[in-house]
């Protein structure tokens, strides 16, 4: 999947977004966000009485969700909309060299304010902070429904299952603040609320924002302080609390740096390619601090996959991850220290020292980390991260228990993981494991429950304490598994039926009182021996038997077996169920057929008027039909030879006929039938006549006549027409007589 310029904060829609489905329902879909420069409760109450909802109250202003027409009629200022803008990077910036020192971001937390995160992605699952939060109206989960936030998070902390996607700080924790919706859009007021929340409630090293405004909200000067005072205030408070704030320069190129990157307390990041050449889209301005790889970055996408993307969105998280490495070496450094070190250790590009195209240069992770004061203090810390096991099991079954363990320190560790049943005081198993700093693995154990007592069992997974480990609270995790008595009751079978019976197939159905498989034994004698089955566990069973013989009696029984292996058979008390396939219907025989394609009436006899002829004017079948016109007065064509229908069980006559629109009342074509020496003439106005000015004209009529009353040896038909003008055509075609013995 290719991402390009995914996230941009601005008044205009982003040039690229992913077609993901919303993960929540927006109850404010008919409302817009407005900003009012008041925090007075009485004034806000007045807005509420007019149909607005107070979303946030900040220090200098308040955010309202109002019906669009109400907000406009009140003259309110619309909130600035925000959108998402937008590994070789590790080698380019020297992060791989930092990793060899045991610094991988372990124990550090980066806040990503974006579209959320795919918390189940194999590269990200063990880095996801479950206290992550959504700030969008009507949303209760930080799960990513766009893909941009997942891509950004992978650049920070992907484990490296795909080595090319390994994050710059693969052991860091991601706290995801979902502030952008499935289209990558959101509001600055949501950013303010999220930063305020993080400052008050989350222990974090950096806030990473891969987002920015589009023109006219871009700035080439030193800063944009004062444009959104509450955003300035939120960022300033976060920095004062020891949290570095990192933001994208934006993808507006020469138009300048976007909000919030242009705010003075922010570390602002532009984009270069793998050759350290500035990307043409990278925002320029005096507020730019550093650049990092932002062209063809490779990272995680929703659904356990990977993709590439370009934009300052993707250079920003690389710098945020470098901060995690710096903080791991010395957690006491301040945001001011971080900013100064990143600037002073950057690889100078463009004009000497600072310029508005590259800032202070391309970030160099190993130089930045080496410049952080103090040496790396060894941290010894192993943990049981999670236990995966079923909530219940049947006594006697084998239960799979997966234990995810992690080395959260910065030194290689060897330790033992033991899983035990605390309820029955039984050790399920122990495994020795060795992990490098920041690495994790899943250990699988099998619990044999044949001797386990019934009821709830507390299953404990414990990692042994390694030397000099002080944080041992996370060395143990427990899970409860309930052991239920074994199932010894077979399914109850009911309502056995055979239906949809044809000459060569039948469907057998039945019901069971529990989930079970489906087996039918059938044959032409008892006990039946032919078997057809379906292993799916269901309560409504249906098996179709095919390849049967016609006019044959079949016997059958049904069987169902539940998941515990208990089988039940139903065979009508040993008498077996049965059904009989019907006799195949006798084949029909064509006794007579004429579509007049021979070009003659050689199968017919005309009367003396000679008004019938073969025409190519129109046809129902092929290119010809029998046509009548002129001054015909009951002019006829009669079958030349009789058809012997004596002794037949049934017979059918089919044909098509047609009259033009200028036929008058009293003009017609009729069908007459000869049988037992007598003509049975049809009367105009009845079903066996096609009447002018009565029946539909200029269309073919397809007719079928049952001949059960005319099964004689002298059967014939004739068509009889009355018409008064040579320009008035009538036609007959596709005459067929079939019989069944």
Textual characterization of the structure:
By secondary structure, this protein is mainly β. It folds into five domains: about 15-80, no CATH class; about 85-370, Peptidase S8/S53 domain (Rossmann fold, 3-Layer(aba) Sandwich); about 380-485, Immunoglobulin-like; about 495-580, Sandwich (Immunoglobulin-like); about 590-740, Sandwich (Jelly Rolls). It contains ten helices and 43 strands. A hairpin with a 5-residue loop joins strand 28 (about 495-500) and strand 29 (about 505-525). Helix 9 (about 335-345) packs across helix 10.
Largest sheet: 10 strands, antiparallel
Q: Determine the strand fraction and express it as a percent band.
A: 35-45%
What general outline do the C-alpha atoms trace? Answer: elongated
Q: Give me the CATH architecture of the largest domain, please.
A: 3-Layer(aba) Sandwich
Q: Provide the residue-averaged pLDDT.
A: 90
Q: What structural class is derived from the secondary structure elements?
A: mainly beta
The CATH superfamily of the largest domain bears the name Peptidase S8/S53 domain
CATH topology of the largest domain: Rossmann fold
């Amino acid at each position: 999947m290719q991402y390009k310029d995914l996230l941009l904060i601005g008044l205009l829609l982003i040039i690229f977004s992913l077609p993901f489905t919303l993960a929540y329902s927006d109850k404010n879909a008919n409302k817009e966000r407005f900003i009012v420069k008041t925090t007075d409760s009485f004034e806000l109450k007045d807005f509420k009485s007019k149909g607005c909802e107070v979303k946030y109250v900040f220090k200098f202003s308040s955010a309202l969700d109002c019906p669009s027409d109400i907000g406009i009629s009140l003259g309110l200022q619309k909130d600035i909309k925000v959108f998402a803008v937008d590994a070789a990077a590790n080698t380019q910036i020297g992060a791989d060299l930092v990793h060899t020192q045991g610094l991988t971001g372990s124990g550090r937390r980066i806040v990503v304010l974006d579209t959320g995160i795919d918390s189940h992605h194999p590269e990200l699952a063990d880095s996801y902070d479950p206290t992550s939060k959504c700030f969008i109206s009507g949303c209760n989960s930080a799960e990513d429904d766009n893909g941009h936030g997942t891509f950004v998070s992978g650049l920070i902390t992907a484990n490296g299952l795909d080595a090319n996607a390994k994050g710059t700080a693969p052991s860091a924790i991601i706290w995801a603040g979902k502030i952008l919706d499935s289209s990558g859009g959101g509001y600055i007021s949501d950013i303010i609320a999220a930063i305020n929340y993080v400052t008050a409630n989350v222990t974090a090293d950096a806030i990473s924002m891969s987002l920015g405004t589009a023109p006219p909200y871009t700035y080439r000067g030193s800063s944009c302080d004062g444009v959104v005072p509450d955003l300035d205030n939120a960022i300033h408070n976060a920095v004062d609390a020891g949290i570095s704030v990192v933001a994208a320069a934006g993808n507006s190129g020469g138009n300048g740096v976007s909000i919030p990157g242009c705010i003075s307390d922010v570390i602002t990041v532009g984009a270069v390619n793998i050759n350290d050449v500035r990307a043409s889209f990278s925002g320029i301005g005096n507020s730019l601090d550093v650049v990092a790889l932002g062209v063809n970055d490779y990272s995680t996408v929703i659904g356990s996959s990977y993709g590439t993307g370009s934009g300052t969105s993707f250079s920003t998280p690389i710098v945020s991850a470098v901060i995690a490495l710096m903080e791991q070496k010395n957690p006491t450094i301040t945001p001011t220290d971080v900013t100064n070190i990143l600037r002073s250790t950057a690889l100078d590009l463009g004009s000497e020292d600072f310029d508005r195209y590259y800032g202070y240069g391309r970030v160099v992770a190993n130089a930045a980390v080496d410049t952080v004061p103090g040496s790396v203090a060894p941290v010894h810390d192993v943990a049981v991260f999670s236990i995966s096991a079923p909530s219940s099991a049947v006594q006697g079954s084998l239960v799979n228990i997966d234990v995810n363990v992690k080395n959260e320190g910065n030194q290689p560790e060897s330790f033992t993981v033991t899983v035990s049943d605390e309820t029955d005081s039984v050790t399920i198993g122990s495994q020795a494991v060795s992990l490098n700093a920041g690495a994790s693995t899943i250990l699988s154990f099998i619990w044999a429950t044949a001797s386990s007592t019934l009821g709830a069992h507390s299953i404990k997974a414990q990692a042994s304490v390694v030397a000099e480990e002080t944080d041992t609270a996370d060395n143990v995790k427990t899970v409860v598994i309930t052991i239920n008595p074994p199932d010894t009751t077979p399914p109850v079978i009911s309502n056995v039926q055979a239906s949809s019976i044809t000459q060569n197939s039948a469907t057998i159905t039945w019901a069971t009182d529990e989930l079970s498989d489906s087996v039918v034994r059938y044959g032409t004698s008892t006990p039946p021996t032919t078997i057809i089955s379906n292993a799916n566990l269901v309560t409504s069973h249906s098996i179709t038997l095919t390849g049967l013989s016609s006019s044959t009696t079949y016997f059958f029984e049904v069987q169902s077996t539940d998941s515990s292996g208990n089988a039940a058979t139903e065979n009508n008390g040993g008498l077996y169920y049965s059904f009989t396939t019907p006799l195949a219907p006798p084949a029909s025989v064509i006794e007579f057929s004429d579509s007049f394609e021979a070009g003659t009436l050689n199968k017919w006899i005309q009367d003396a008027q000679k008004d019938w002829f073969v025409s190519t004017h129109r046809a129902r079948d092929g290119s010809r039909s029998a046509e009548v016109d002129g001054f015909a007065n009951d002019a006829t064509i009669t079958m030349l030879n009789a058809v012997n229908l004596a002794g037949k069980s049934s017979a059918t006559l089919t044909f098509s006929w047609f009259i033009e629109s200028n036929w008058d009342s009293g003009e017609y074509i009729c069908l007459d039938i000869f049988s037992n020496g007598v003509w049975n003439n049809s009367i105009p106005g009845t079903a066996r006549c096609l009447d002018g000015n009565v029946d539909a004209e200029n269309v073919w009529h397809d007719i079928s006549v049952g001949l059960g009353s005319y099964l004689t040896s002298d059967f014939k038909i004739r068509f009889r027409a009355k018409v008064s003008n040579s320009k008035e055509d009538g036609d007959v075609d596709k005459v067929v007589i079939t019989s069944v013995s």
